[in-house]
User: Fold this.
Amino acid sequence: MFWKRQFPILITAFVAFVMIAAFFIPKPNIAVARDNLQQWFLIVVTFTMVLGLLNLLLVSYQKARRGRKEDRFYQWVTIAGLLGTIIAGFLGGGIDGPAFDFIFEHIYKPLSATIFSLLAFYVASASFRAFRAKSVMATILLITAFIVMLGRVPLGEWVSGWLVGTKFEFLYLPTITDWIMEVMNMAGQRAVLMGAALGLIATGIKIILGIERSYLGGE
Amino acid sequence: MTFLEKLDRLDRRIIFLIIGIAVFTPLLFKVPVKVPGSPIVQSIYEGIEALPEGSIILLSFDYDPSTLAELQPMSEAVVYHCVQKKHKMVFMGLWPQGPKLAQGIMDDVGPRNNLEYGVDYVNLGYKTGGLVLISSMGSAITDPFPTDTYGASLSTLPLFKDLKTLRDFDYVVSMSAGDPGIKHWVMIAQDRFKVPVGGGVTAVSAPAFYAYYNSGQLQGLMGGLRGAAEYETLIDVSGSASLGMSAQNWAHLMIILFIIIGNTTMLILKRRKEKSRGR
Assistant:
C-alpha cells in the first residue's frame, strides 16, 4: 500500500515544494534542482506518448477482433494508418523522407482540414434549426451573435459604413462588435479565468497535501 | 403542409448545399478582400516592426492541420513580415505537427528570399511538455533541444551563437489552436522571462484571450481568418487570408439569413397556431 499510495504522494509533495521554492527563492542550488526536475518531467512525458501509442494499438486491435461488427473495419483502418505511418517514418528516411511527407501532405493534412471544415456546414444547419428567439435571454444571445457575425466580416463595414462621420457613428457594426468583445465578453472571460485560477490553486494545494488522490487511480 | 411548414422543416442537405456554394464560389473566382487592421492586430505588427533588423523571433506553431485554414495564413503573414524586416526566425512546435507546417512555409519562402538555414532561420522541431518545456527553455534552450529537427547540434548553427535561453529572443509569436499554446507562452515567456508575446488563435477561441491583451500580458492577437487578413493588409501582402475572407463573408451572410428565416418562420407559425387555438 505504501508504494501505491503514500510514496507517490510524497514524490508529488517533494516536487511541488521544490518548484514553489525555486519560484520564490532565487538561489542557484534550488534552480539546479528545478531544472533537473523539469528534465525528468520531459523524459517521463515522452514515455507516456509511447504508452499512449501502444494503448491505441492494443485497444484498436481488441475492438477489431471482438468489437461491434460495423465498427471493425474502422479499427483496422486505424491500425493500418498507425503502422503505415510508423513504417514510412522509420524506413522511408524519417519525417522528411518522401513516404512520410506524402502521408502528411496528401493524406493527413487534407483529411484533417476537411473534417474541421465540416463544422461550417453543421453551424449553418444548427443556426437554422436551433438558434431561435424563444425567450428573452435567447433573443439577447441571438442579437449579439447577429451583430458580431456581421461585424467580423467586411459585410458589416459595407452595410453600416455610411454611418461613419454622422452622429450615429456609434452604430457602425465593427465598432459595436469591438465593444461587445472588449467590454462585455472580457468581463465574463475574466470572471471565468479568475474562477478557474482559484480552482486550480485549491486543487493544487489538495494534491500537494495528499487530500486529492483521484489522479492515483482507484478511490 | 404549407410552404412555411416545409421551410421550417427544411432538409439539412439543402442548407449544406447552399453553404457549399456560398463558400466555394468566391474561392473559385479568387477575389481578395482587404480588411483594415484593428488595434489588437496592429499591436503585433508594430511590435515586430519596431524591432531592429536582425532581431530574433521565436515562432511557435502550436496547431495541427485541422486548424490550417485559419492559422496557416497567420503564420505565413508573420513569416513574410519577419523576412521583410530581415529578422532571424526560430521555429518550433508544442504540437507534433507544427514544425512540419513551419517547414512547409519555409520550403517556399526560404529559397525565394535567399534565406540560409542555420543563419537566417532554424527549425527546432517538436518536443512534448508544454508549459514545462517553455520553462525549461528559460534555463537553457539546449536542455530540451540539444539538436534541431534535422539532428544538427545547436552549437554548430551560427544563429545559436549568442542565443542561449528564452530571454535572448526579442519576440515570441505563438499560433495556437488550444492546449498547450499561447496561454502557456504568456504564463512563462511573458510573465516570468519578460519576452513580449503575441500570436494568433482560431476565431472560436479568440474571445478567451482578450483579457490577456487588455492586461498587457499579450502584446497583440490575431483572431481567426479575419485576424490573418488584417495582418496581410498591414504588411501589404495579398495572401490566402484575404482570399478566404471573401468566402467567409458569404458564409456569414448565409448563416445570418438562415437565422432570420428560421426565426421568422417560427414566429409566423406560432402566431397561426395561437390564432387557430383562439377560434
Observations:
- The first helix of chain A runs from residue 2 to 24.
